[in-house]
Amino acid sequence: MLTISGVSKNFGGRALLSAVDLQVNRGERIGLVGPNGAGKTTLFSLILGVASADEGTVTLERGVTLGYLPQESAPAGEETVLDLATGNFSTASPADATTAHPEVHHSLLAVPADGQATAKAKRILSGLGFRERDFERPARQLSGGWVMRAHLARLLVQEPDLLMLDEPTNHLDLEALLWFQEYLKNYPGAIVLISHDREFLNQLVGSIVEIRQSKLFRYRGNYEDYLVQRQAAYDQQLAAYKNQQREIAHLMEFVDRFRAKNTKAAQAQSKLKQIERMVKIEAPEDDTRQISFSFPQPQRSGLKVITLKQIHHAYGENVVYRGIDFAAERDQRMVLVGPNGAGKSTLLKLLAGVLPVQAGERILGHNVKEGYYSQNRVEMLKPERTVFEEAADTPQRVTEQFIRTICGCFLFRGDDVFKRVSVLSGGEKSRLALVKLLLDPPNLLLMDEPTTHLDMASIDALVSALKQFQGTLIFISHDVYFIRALANHVVHVNAGQLTHYSGDYQYYLDKTSATSARAALTSAGTNANRHMVRPQETFQNEADGDATISRKEQKRVEAELRQARSRERREQQQLVHRLEKEIAELEKQQEELSMELEKPETYAKAGAAMHINRELSAAVERLEQVSAEWEAAATKLAAMDGETHDT
């Protein structure tokens, strides 16, 4: 349905795309990845026809409908949310194809607002987090993120043959994201999406197209499959490059030795020509490798970090919390989850002290210093400073190289560090605020959607920093990969109630799944007895039918419970294996650092021994922590095995 042949595109004297080819067939799911600035959005522009290729062709099959959701800047006017979702408005939409290829079918420009389309739009809007009372609200009253959701609903109502999505999860909370993810699994058309959410890619795509060095590289499978295949290709190219370099060095050794001797000069010249005739293998660029470094760490807090007692909070007539209690302890990594509007951000702001306590008590523990990361942190940046000057304004003793390395991890590379804060975009300011926070972290870190505006490498850098973080972390995120990597405690926020789950995200999913299954089982049992008070003549036939239904339902629920237990055991096994691997790595690191301290040359470098000692102490402390986690996890796994045996 879409064919890209030999397309090249230059921008600002740089080749973004060079003679690239791509075929998209009906029903395919393709993830487009690559670092920021690699050309992903440019490729979308070429497909849409809003930009033209310097060379090559972009061809769509006749009659193909195409829909596009950009990253930002969705228009909104006097039309209602429901008008946006059904296409019943005059404002230009980001999905409009008026400037696209003539082959694109223009039925995309409007969707008849008949009863069926309206009902479908309402279902989709509800799935994306809108409430029924929002349907008739003027779109101009909404934030940009909610307007983008309404435009996304419109695309899903239209169901174009090719759906193009540029970072579609940026404006979704976790609940809406999971709904959207499930909806796309059954989407009838083809999908090409740009996303930095690897879990989202893992769940949806059947192939990955990477833009690297102005070329397109296609890999079969999801994002995890891509990482494995890419690493194998890198290893293969690196081995071939090294072999060729050894061969060239061997030939040049002969040339250098014998080129001055008359009897060997001809042979030496032949060797030189042999080198010239070689098709040179380029050294592979590994722009996916993680940079390893140690972040500054905060002062240790007391065990009880923060407590809320009988907290009430309302926005006017809208009561969010009525007498809730909350507590967090040192070293907890807590994620707040729940539907949009449930009060997650409000809770985080109450914990941060950003919102004053209207009733109740907020208690900070001994030696606790809180830090709150959200969009309002950008207001603390000084516009006249450069990125580097702002990052370097920290009480921590860090080198210029370290600061530049951290800035590079968060997309400030090369001369970007000399940009003035005043010219930075909103996303760049958010990333700079994140850099400043990590360079001088508090021991209570409160973060609201910290991965927004980050690419995958930067998310990995943030995960690495927060895994090292020796404090308490409470955060909100819609990035499931990020949540899985960090959370060891989950708090579900809904309807003013807080439900705690003392485990990681998978534990939370398994527990809530099991709870739902048990509720269904109870419901089935209740339904089976519902007719007991009815007249005898009608009871027999209905009871027989209900008994059959309840038995089927009971078997189904019991099967779900078994699957949930099996999944929980499998996840527990993976956790034990991961901890065992980390213990082995830490023991190896401890041994290597100890050996370094035994070397006399270590003490010849000023501060080297002190630095190694700090690393060794951190490794020993982490080893103790991981060993305790392993013991608890292994004990839990043994208990699960015992339950399975008993069953």
The dominant shape is globular
CATH level-two architecture of the largest domain: 3-Layer(aba) Sandwich
Distance between the termini: 53 Å
Number of domains: 4
The strand line-up of the biggest sheet is 5-6-7-3-8-9
The multimeric state of the shown protein is: single chain
Classified by CATH, the class of the largest domain is: Alpha Beta
Could you name the CATH topology of the largest domain? Rossmann fold
Structural class by sheet pairing and helices:
alpha/beta
Please indicate the percent range of residues in DSSP E strands (runs of 2 or more): 15-25%
Rg (CA only): 29 Å
* Name of the CATH superfamily of the largest domain: P-loop containing nucleotide triphosphate hydrolases
- Low-pLDDT stretches are 91-99, 101-110, 517-549
- Output the number of helix runs: 17
Mean pLDDT: 82
The helix content, as a percent range, equals: 40-55%
Compute the number of strand runs.
Answer: 18
What can you tell me about this protein's structure?
This protein has 647 residues and is α/β, with parallel strands linked by helices. It has four domains: 2-221, 3-Layer(aba) Sandwich (Rossmann fold); 227-277; 304-503, 3-Layer(aba) Sandwich (Rossmann fold), CATH 3.40.50; 508-646. The protein is 46% helix and 18% strand. It has helices spanning 40-48, 81-86, 115-127, 144-158, 174-185, 198-204, 223-258, 265-277, 344-352, 387-392, 400-409, 426-439, 456-468, 480-486, 505-528, 536-598, 608-646, and strands at 2-11, 14-24, 29-33, 55-60, 66-69, 162-166, 190-194, 207-212, 215-220, 304-315, 318-329, 333-337, 359-364, 370-373, 444-448, 472-476, 489-494, 497-501. The strands form four sheets. A six-stranded mixed beta sheet has the order 5-6-7-3-8-9, sandwiched between helices. Strand 17 and strand 18 form a beta hairpin. It is globular.
